[in-house]
Amino acid sequence: MLRAEGVAFYTEYTNSKKRCKSVGSCNSKGCCETAVIEVIDKCGRAEGNLIPILHELQNAMGYVSEEAMETVATELGIPIGRVHGTATFYTLFYTKPQGKNLVRLCDSPPCHIEGSKAIREAVSKALGIKPGETTEDGNFTFEIVSCMGLCGVAPAIMINDDVYGNLTPDAIPGILGKYAACSCGCKEVN
Fold first, then answer.
1. How far apart are alpha carbons 12 and 6 in whole angstroms?
2. Which CATH class for the 101-177 domain?
3. Which of these, 20, 50, 159, lies nearest to 103 by C-alpha position?
């Protein structure tokens, strides 16, 4: 599948209101099955399309659920282990719901030497979670990555697509505060 076709499909799919109403997860087995089958039909029913199918499912649902993987395996006629193995091998596929804001901390050798451990502790303290976890309100997911190519501004984090470098632990609460959900629960950013 060509990239342009994938982008056009994603735009059409997410604008068509066929997406599950519950952000980050399906609200019923039928919802997941319907969404998965529509993605497979658009991408093509061939094992060679497994990665594009998983990308489209993640874009549509926020992650690739166990139910979605089972449906993909059944629809493509391949073992569930192959689908699960692919989804868990690649680090940019998520098999559980992720927070609205994804905080990635670089732990490459330059970032590590420049103090990423102290930044990790500051992020964990500010969010009340460890790497690999999501806050209870679903606003943040915190993960450690091997390298973001930001060695010149080590230590560095990315929040969604925003880069922050030359960090100190004292800077972390202010940076994270820019992404905090409104206290009324409406999910608006402060």
1. 10
2. alpha beta
3. 159
For residue 83 the two structure tokens come to: 């689908």
Per-domain boundaries in the chain: 3-89, 101-177
The reported pLDDT for the residue numbered 188 is 53
Task: Return the bridge partners of 105, or none.
Answer: 144, 157
pLDDT digits (tens, 9 = 90+) for 106-129: 999 999 999 999 999 999 999 999
Please write down the long-range contacts of 145-148, taking CB distance under 8 Å and 24 or more positions apart.
145/91, 145/104, 145/105, 145/106, 145/107, 146/106, 146/107, 146/108, 147/106, 147/108, 148/104, 148/106, 148/108
pTM of the model: 0.67
**How many other β-carbons are positioned within 10 Å of the β-carbon of residue 180?**
16
User: Bridge partners of 143?
Assistant: 104
Express each pLDDT in 52-104 by its tens digit: 999 999 988 889 999 999 999 999 999 999 999 999 998 789 998 999 999 99
Q: Can you tell me the distance from the alpha carbon of 163 to that of 168, in angstroms, rounded to the nearest whole number?
A: 14
Of residues 125, 74, 133, 71, the one with CA closest to residue 103: 133
